[in-house]
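hey so u asked for the seq, here:
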Amino acid sequence: MPKNSRAERIILISMMKSGTHLITELLAALGYRMHGHVRVRPETAPVLDPQTRRRMAEMVYDDERLAELKAQDEASFLDATDQAWEALAWAWKLRWGMPLVNQYSTELVNRRLVAQALERTSGTPFTQTPSNVCWVLHEFDIRKIDGAFLSDWSRTGEPRIVFNYRDPRDVALSMVNFASGHTRGGLSAINNLQAFGSILRAKPTLEERLTYALTDGSFPAQAHDYMRMMWLLHHPNVYSTSFEQLVGPDGGGSAEAQLRATAGLIEFLGAADASPEDVATKLFNRDAFTFFKGQVGAWKEVYTAEHRRIAQQRFAEVLPLYGYV
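ran it, structure tokens below
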């Protein structure tokens, strides 16, 4: 659903190993800063002005702590408001029902300041978060999201929500390579992937690793993950795109599809001053943290007949719903 004004806040749901680096490069080229499931570089970290910092401090801290901050120097104020922003971010992820304990730890999620931020901001709208930030998530289960957020979003269309996906057969292959440690930056900070990494590295061949990934129902990139995200694919206020559309000729896609997807996203975000042609040239980044090969249909080169049979059985319902054959 195109918007006239530039989006102040974005939520990007990019399914794991679906080319998150492509779409975050696009959004960074439009001037947005990043937070969440993405490797944040200094030039893409959120910029918090003094007014935003004061607002977040007032949202998260009690009166006693606020009084202390007024008497402290600038360095202490910056440190305290950085902590307030971090706690506020965790609180919002809890309001969205993210599986943070599994991905990170109980200790991290249950920190006192996070609990305080959640309690004090449970009724605040998303517009109170810092502007010009794209929140990058790997899932957005409508059954777990705070109903107040859904009500506000349904009424206003803000924040703008973008959904990115990829052929699940390529996702499974990419996840195997990623969890095996074959990408440039190694594994991410998501702790539950480390267990799968140990399993995969213990298997001597790619064929065995793929067989395991396609048959263990707990391995990431399940058909039910795609089914849970179906509501995003169909919602008229969500801009949906895919790895295959965004990757362009460097990754086995087409320049035409890449330009069309880029132009559509720019229109959706109201970034009227951006040139789709210029932005599209910046998407394919081989230096991205999780980059390995980044090719459309790479699964066709490595899947055995048995892998194809298992994948077809596993994703039989999902493939046509997402436009894959």
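Residues 53 and 78 are 8 Å apart (CA to CA). The chain is about 50% helix and 10% strand.
lmk if thats what u needed
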